[in-house]
Fold each of these.
Amino acid sequence: MKNTTEFTHIPKDMFEFVNHGERISDKKFEDKPIGYFKDAWIRFCKNKASIVAAVIILCILAFAFIAPLAITTHNATFMDTYYSRKPPRNELLSNIGIADGGTNRDFSEQGIVKAVAVGMGAEDHDGSGTVTLEEGMASEYQPILDIMGSREVSEIRGVPPRTIYSARIENYLEVGFLYLSIPQSQYYQILEWQEETGLQVLYPLIANNEYTMDAADANYWYKMDSRGNPVRTTAGEAEVIEYAEGMVLEDNYRRDENGNPVYYEYTGGGNHETAQFRVRVLYYNYYQYRNGFTPQYLLGTDSQGYDLTLRLADGIKLSVLLAICVSAINLVIGAIYGAVEGYYGGAVDMVMERIVDVLANVPFVVVATLFQMHLATRVGAIPSLLFAFVLTGWISTAARTRTQFYRFKGQEYVLAARTLGARDRRIIWKHIFPNSLGTIITASALVIPGVINTESMLSYLGIVKLNTSSVTSLGNLLASASSIWTSYPHLMLFPAIVISLLMICFNLFGNGLRDAFNPSLRGVEE
């Protein structure tokens, strides 16, 4: 018999391709093992909607943490009631036509005169009363940014029509002049600051006489009749001044016996330091004197005068961090509870399920309300809200974990581990739980938008009060704007956009995780 070993080495030149000269394939076949999480990451990256949602979530979180660091002039507790409910204002963005602090509005003739009078009065430093309309319109303190036109309106038949002016007004400059009570020492400090900066803060007081329409309004520095029309007095008779080019308003300043305007009024106090002076200030400059910077609010101010950008950042951090904490705690409690139920089954499962049935039928709103009424006074509103979410929030995670354990505990690899002497704890956490992790993580991710929505709802309804100088939530911002949003839409717009994006994006992100961790799709090409 011939030895077969001599056929084991055959020269290469004895082999040839059947289709010589034709390329069969350039594809290189590889068979490398891919880990579970790497495979999940590959499938998650193929879900474009989830990727976009994750990017948007990261952008929102970046805004929440970077905005307070970028705004160096003030913090979230800074408040100015005179600049409450103001639209966005930023000097850099205003150069390209946005965030100029302005809104479009219709004015009557008396209203447009009052508005332009702010700029005219700001230019009248010495109380001479000779500033023209054109000089006032050129003032940097002029609130009227643009007069877009006028129209005649007749509301009642037989009554002469009145003129309505459509204009864009700068809301921060519109505040104009205010009466303030300050110590005498501060009065002299303002005088020194005026000399150093060249910015006028103190202006003449207004006389309280028959030509004063409203003694409490510091912007009515000019003489008016009982209807609010500006007038010029000649020989004791008042003549109405028409709003037109070259208009000069007659001042109604308080003057001393020498005819000089009066800049302060003593209202009480004992000595040089404590004596109180009543003064009339141009608030835009007084704001700079007090704070050292001009009013700059990227998203405007809220209903109380806080910077809406910083309040929105605080609201995002509170809502998202609360949701993540609730999700993490529910994940831990639910995973442990469901693992014990599913692994041991029988009487243990029966007893634990009855406990779940009792807790699942407790209304969450009732729990949250009771916790806020009785527990919040001791531990605070946020911890009590966290307890309310955790009390019953882990039930859905426990149910999913229990289902997964019933599914996997009878598999061959589990029986093999038990045969080799593995303890129950090792079998639970080393053999069964990792196979259930994908479903549990997905469920936990989908808890986050639900918590954000519920927290916003409770805050909006006033059940949870998270509206202080240092703490706020997205729901509280919406609640504060609910009654005034038609006049100040930015107060409702920005929080509503953020909540909507968070809800949509976290749901899309959770759907991507669900598909990525789905064991049935492992290794499937899409």
Amino acid sequence: MLDGRYRSPRGVLVGRGVLVGTIFVLVGLLASCSSRTDPRPNILVVLWDTVRADRLGLYGFHKPTTPFLDEWAEHARVFEDCISPANYTVASHASLFTGLYPTEHGAHNGQVRLSSRHVTLAESLAKAGYQTFLYSANPYISAETGFAQGFQEKKHPWSPELRAEAYRIVKNKIAPEDRSSELPGKIRAGKVGPWDIKASGELAGRSLLEWLHGIDRRRPFFAFLNYMEAHRPWVPPVEYRRRVLPEDEVERSYEVNRSWTKLWRYTFGVESYTDDDLEIMAGRYEATIAELDDLLRELIEELDAEGLLENTVVVVTSDHGEHLGEKDLLDHQYSLYDPLLRVPLVLYYPERIDPGRESRPVMTHDLYRTLHELAGVGLPSAAVVRGTSLLAPEPERDRLAECLGVFSSPYPAVLAVDPDWDPTPWEREIRAIYRDSLKLIRWSDGEEQLFRIEKDPGEEEDVAEELDEEKARMEEALETWVAVLDEAGPSEGPGPVFTEAQRGMLEALGYLHDDREGEETAGVSEDTAAPDERDRNGGKAAASIEERNE
């Protein structure tokens, strides 16, 4: 029924001659090849933003979301028990980039900027001679928020040379009948911003290949690619929906409303979804992972064709997961339950890492120490690094996760509909600690829950009263850790004060408002999407932010 109404983004790209451009880049790569004088490995980190581990085939999921990754990972190390130190973008990326917990690096819901006092992974590798490249579809991971420290080249879907194509890619994903969020209406109106063109992942691989064409091939590179296909509002092309949903549910996946206000009204308990609605929304999410799997296949095949995988460490991971109705929650705030913390982690480097599966407990910020080790680069002097090495994970360890700062962005939209709604119960910080087979979650108002996480992976049975002694030991361990982290935490005060110009650009990109697609945001309109028209409407904001990045 939907066939022929719109084309998949891959068809659009090939039709626009991008295949020819890619061939040109690859030919250029061959021409520029010279013998490597630096034997250290290249490093490529592929981060699928907002992807939970249990929706991937290699973690036992029954739907065909990741057929390529499942097969390719047979040649890599798959970490079966990996958690993120945080449940949302800013804090989790900052931990990955610094090897620290959120309390220590200070980037969280209340402070979106990563301090320059930290030596990031990119800074450390660049200082050691690595050529560094960042492609981020997430506006939080950019120069304006301090996350581009150490990256010599930075690209985003809203970069002047990319934003027109990013707009077209997303536009071609939107079916005529799609009413599932605010995005289709904004796309049809031709008035969108950086958050609205983030699901344009084809540009990540293309931008990387173009950058590789111009670098010194005698020296190693470090590249970090952030993909946002699995971040709300989810607009996977129909072929991926059909991979994971029955045909009648494919149709309904364009109808079930997961707009900003309804999503949060459900999460705050003032509106409901049916079980069928939640199942269809989950299918739409799973379809975005299937799309990411194809994007990874294309990237790996292109790099392999050029022999670039022979001496390259490849990491596939995520920053955090997503609630799909568990505990009556959606999105990835107000919780430290496992749907938000358990993420995939695959490490490929046959020269030093034996393929197989690793069951020992690890964390995403372990990558900081591990990638330094694989690169043969010493850790920054006097740096405190909490992560361990993935080359020899510890059999037992405490693992922490933190949700710091209050995420108040949804409040105005919900209060506009429900003026009597009380947000106070949601204004809590959260910490969790994993030790052995137990997990303790503590909210800042004193509420606690204890789970036997191995026997009860769904966190359905709170055993805090039943296991009183174990709970006391977990509380003591958490309190000890909090004291250690507080002592090592930021000492800079409340963070930077932005000028009016900086605040205007941050607001235009959504930094100060998160991704409220229900609101009008500056960035790219249908008119400004044309390559020769850079300065209308929000184009100025996107252009000026890029100029600052250069």
Amino acid sequence: MTSAPEAPDLPDLNFDPDSLRDRYRRERDKRLRDDGNEQYIEVKDRFAHFLDDPYVEPGFTREPLEDEVEVIVIGGGFGGLLAGVRLRQAGVESIRMIDPAGDFGGTWYWNRYPGIACDIESYTYLPLLEELDYVPKEKYSYGKEILDHSQAIGRKFDLYRDALFQTRVVDLTWDDEAARWIVETNHGDRMRAQYVAVAAGPLNRPKLPGIPGIEDFEGHTFHASRWDYRYTGGDSSGNLTGLRGKRVGIIGTGATAVQCVPHVGEWADQLYVFQRTPSSIDVKDNPPTDPEWAKSLGPGWHQKRMDNFNNLVSGIPQEEDLVNDGWTDLIGNLLVGIRKGKTQDFSPEGMAKAVEIADFEKMESIRARVDELVEDGDTAEALKPYYRQFCKRPCFHNEYLATFNRPNVELVDTDGKGVERITKKGVVVAGQEYEVDCLIYASGFEVGTDYSRRAGMQFHGKDGRTLSETWADGVRSLHGMHVRGFPNCFLMNGSQAGFTASYPHMLNEQAKHLAYIIQTGREKGLEAVEATTDAEEAWIAQCIGKARDTGDFFENCTPGYYNNEGKASERSAQDGFYGGGSPEFIRILEAWREAGALEGLETR
């Protein structure tokens, strides 16, 4: 493991970088587990009820379909919506949207827990704002506004036409002779499509912690992504009157828990929050949108703002920080250091050292904020995150930390070990049982598991070969989107594609790219497009080469879904995000389209 060299040109630091590196390493090491992602339980069989949709009437049925459309888009979240919109704009009329949810919205359809809001600025995060002539109500949108916006996109671009909701695709099979995909669903459908775009989303399949005894608990339980308001009362704004007199346990302290814990703590008789790793909690300044500012926005303002934010969080200095929040703070600290002469070595090694120091300063301020807000010293110490800022998704909240000052709220810190076991009556940590009436899993979503498993469907390409078989030794693609042996199939996937903190930004770039290819195929009268073996090999080599830029960072991080739960395998370089960063990845796609040659795609 490499450590950055010491910084003799930084005499005014109020911390010791070597001591912090050592603390970060110790905190990481005690959380490392041999089982990695296998520590979680797949939500199926006796746990399948955790996937039930609480927002629709049960028992939905319809007659199966056996018709044909030009494009089937699988997924009704922002990825699917953006694919549908860009296809509409490219002149494609025959589009069918399919989603297991009861409406558009994706993760914002499923996640309606109390306090849900976006932690990326709404003027950056919400897609298609100019196309809908809409400016969000606040700097950070609450879940209801984002769900409404999703459905407004569907209406604006006529994507409800032919849409199939409450429908889960279970199998995609390529018919090579007909050059069509056969799409089968849980309703017995056997539809055909020339093209399929798969936008299953990275946060669509809940996961449960594999804690011994999880099936023994006899109280009420649910996953936070399927919040049970019939039990808790209230809605996403709070008012959880059903929790009066109840003892509640929440397992997880990530972005979901940070937002819902204050509401549960307000209404429950007793709340236990079970923590393995604390989140980084920064200030959330959420003013209402200034109507005069909104009126002043000129054409192209939205893309300009998205690019500005994405460049800053990717470490690319900008003349102006348009967003100016906790996400862009780190690069701001770095630039201040450069201006003050703290950084004089501008070699790659010198800049890496400067970024690390700026990161240390940022996280020191995060930890100081815990001391300011949390009254009990032991609780405050347990809530301090000791890792680099972007090792885990940063959180922004003004009530979470102070909630632990309530006499009815107790942080049960597991010192990185996690919950020991679950019993009929409650949760055991370090030999002590905490009895609860209700247990809520804020344990996140499957990220690093097999793609077909996460998408909930099997892919059969040429000669019946499955995607799981094709990727058995690592992801193989061109631009993260095309896979050899799977013609006319577009994966809106993160592997071998650019990573953006504001995920819809990348989904929009992928949507524009696939729409361009389909439009070009229509103009040229093509039946099929498919990645060539050479193009795939070249892209894999490029991804592995670029991965060296980020590999050491994530290897030294505390375990989480960003680094495959601390199991940075030999395949991480091949299976991870494009290591050159999303701005570079976007430029690659733009240059590819501008060349107009469909380079790397075999056509017929």
Amino acid sequence: MIRVMLVDDEPFILEGLSVLIDWNEQGCQIVKKAANGKEALDYLLKNEVDMVFADIKMPVMTGIELLQTVREEEISNAYFVIVSGYNDFHYAQSALRYSALEYLLKPVGADALIRVIDKVKNKRESDANVTEVTADVKKAYLTQNIMLLLAGKAKEKHTDYVKHNLHRYGAGDFRFVSICFGNVDSMEEKSDEEIIRLKDGLCRKIRDILGKNSDRLFPDIPGYTDEYEISFIFSDDLGSEYETDVHKYLEKLAEKIREADENYRPVFLVGKRVEDISRLSRSYSSAASLRPFRSFGEKKTIYIYEEDVQANEGGVLLCKDELDSLISGIELNDKDRICSSVDALYDAVAGFGSSIMSDRALSINTNYLLFRLLHLAVELDESINQEEVMTYISENVSEEGASRGGRTHLKKFAGSYADYLGQLRKNVSRGVLQDIEKEIKTNFAENLTLKDLSRKYYVNSSYLGQLFKKKYDQSFKDYLCAVRIDEAAAMLLKTADKIPVIAEKVGYKDTDYFITKFIELKGCTPAKYRKQNEG
């Protein structure tokens, strides 16, 4: 059945449309009658709808505003039919711009309704991938809401959307879990295409194993996972399938993955337990803090925050003198002292006796070292995000090709961090952001990226992103977009260039995308902006 929503502020029109034809006979079911666009939008955020008949003129939110919001925020892939008593081409043009299927004038007759329904049926039949496309759109919007949760910026509507679309998340607490490839070094030798194929293959196997719970798996969350990680949200009710806890559940999952393909050796980084999914950011940040721990000490399949971080904060078996010497060497960027201190640390750890005790002591000491190193960076700049600092260090060590584990790797790690601290000192003192601002305002039309600018000005990309956020309260991408749109607005008033030409001059090859961003920032289309400011 085609699920239909009728939206009109006139009750008699809603009732009239609902009885004008035999909807069931046409293969349709009216699932909602809404009095305005806002009521319809709230329903679409939580429910699946295939076709929307919406009036143009309504209080609170018009039909066009509803359509625009749904399309721009990718809330629903429903077919929209805009109904209006205004025979005005401007309204039809607006409706078509946001991919309305049809524009009908009131009063709507039975024949017109049936014709539109047939059009939808034909369109669904001609597009064999419509179900897959709808699922992709839903997954993309769900991922956007998960990203807001991870950033700690989700509003109630975003949290409600996640809870509704992951409806099996019920009883118990939650954990964010990163699923990584076991051998990162071998992955780094592979091409991007090979990594994508391996990651897709692992995702398919995990989805097959999870079955009905595969909606908990997120192969890629931009900005929150690296290219070797897959995100997974665990809750206690999921663990109850095996009548056990997260550790046993993931052990079972790892076993099933290896049975499916022995080439996959997953490693799980498990964030701390949180009591509600709205607090997922806390679990995510704690899981991310486990990334560097894979480089040192005991190699495991499952790292759990409470066991591998909190349990090691008591200082048992701590080689304080050796660690203080190593930290001092890093702070002074004294490579000789770093090497000798690492050797002294390993010798001291070996003195604890059995291999089990030595491994335990090494894990405790390296964990303590990591947290001390974080504080060194924070003392230089309070805006530093600790988790991103550790991500930076891990990436740098990996790029150098260091084998993971052992004193050689720790020396490379410590040397890399010493260089990083020196870089931070320079950035704090010379105001590198001013140089980058000039670069953007001069070359805004080029394909500027945070990564390229960070390389050019010898600034860590994560740190540079923090600087933009701190100064402008917006991301680098949004800052660049604002500069481009401001330049475009000036060109609209100073030149007679056509809009596609201006779009390309400020760095947008896609004119439609340019218009969308212009509307977001200026509140109207480029053409309307030019007309309003002609004087």
